[in-house]
Amino acid sequence: MYKIQSLKDKSFDALYESFQDAFADYEMQVNKEELERMLIRRGFVPELSFGAFDGDKLVAFTFNGIGKYCGIETAYDTGTGTMKDYRGKGLATQIFEYSIPFLIEAGIKQYLLEVLQHNTKAVSLYQKLGFEITREFNYFSQEVEAVQLSVNNTELDYKIKDITLTQIESLAYFFDFNPAWQNSFESIFRKPEEFKAFADLSENIPVGFCVTEIKSGDITQIAVNHNHRRNGIGTLLLNEALKVNLHNSVKCINTSIGCDSITRFLESFSIPVAGKQYEMIKKI
């Protein structure tokens, strides 16, 4: 018999141990520092996250982030996993069903998650739980040394300048699509010291910007004013992101599949699509 309860009293070391076991066969691995950074960025709230326990051992879990998404109070599945020896027992479903009353009591109106498209078993499970596919995402990844980027002089005079995240927020109208949960301004502002923000200026006016999490190599946001595209601005921004990157790879996670411009842009520098995800939402 398994006991399901909140994770509010579990140490981070205990959470990491369970996470590491549950995702040992997963294609993307994270170390302890990376997991901690990821949980902070995604708004992890232990009191509204839940797990299944075999005695004192955490054998399955859902780490929930809490915040607003498109103006709606939202719970975000930051990570759901089950230790290998405990799979096939329906623990993920039990945890999810147990959590809903607590989320509703906390004022949450919807539950958001992302799932790899090739993980058809998980997609089917979420659909049975009432989730609907709302968007499709690409994620891109490449080793820094394999990125093929050369910066040429452009006809226009652009200047790269560091700017604050608050200044970046005023340029959101450059976007072709709304950022996913982990790339939103709310997520970035949870730990702003981890990010570097800079803009391309023309006559001292921003015409493009980029935000990157330098320790992970994650390009969180990159956008160019529609009236200034095809002038090499995006190339300058990507080049600057690579200069400050402290990781051995560069990533751009959860770009809209429907946005051909970002796909063509990244692939032109040999940063390929590494996988695809569904964004799924359930109203609660």
What are the low-pLDDT stretches, counting only 5+ consecutive residues below 50?
none
Major sheet: arrangement of strands: 1-2-3-4-5-12-6-11
- The sequence of SSEs as H and E is EHHEEEHEHEEHHEEEHEHE
CATH topology of the largest domain: Aminopeptidase
Largest sheet: 8 strands, mixed
**Rg, alpha carbons:** 20 Å
Mean pLDDT: 94
Helix content: 25-40%
In one word, what is the shape?
A: elongated
Task: Outline the structure in words.
There is one protein chain. The protein is α+β, with helices and mostly antiparallel strands. It has two domains: 3-108, 3-Layer(aba) Sandwich (Aminopeptidase); 140-276, Aminopeptidase (3-Layer(aba) Sandwich), CATH 3.40.630.30. Helices cover 26% and strands 35% of the residues. The chain has helices at residues 12-22, 32-41, 91-105, 120-128, 165-169, 185-188, 233-244, 260-267; strands at 3-6, 50-54, 57-69, 72-82, 110-116, 132-143, 159-162, 195-202, 205-213, 218-224, 249-256, 273-283. It is elongated and about 65 Å long. The two termini are 28 Å apart.
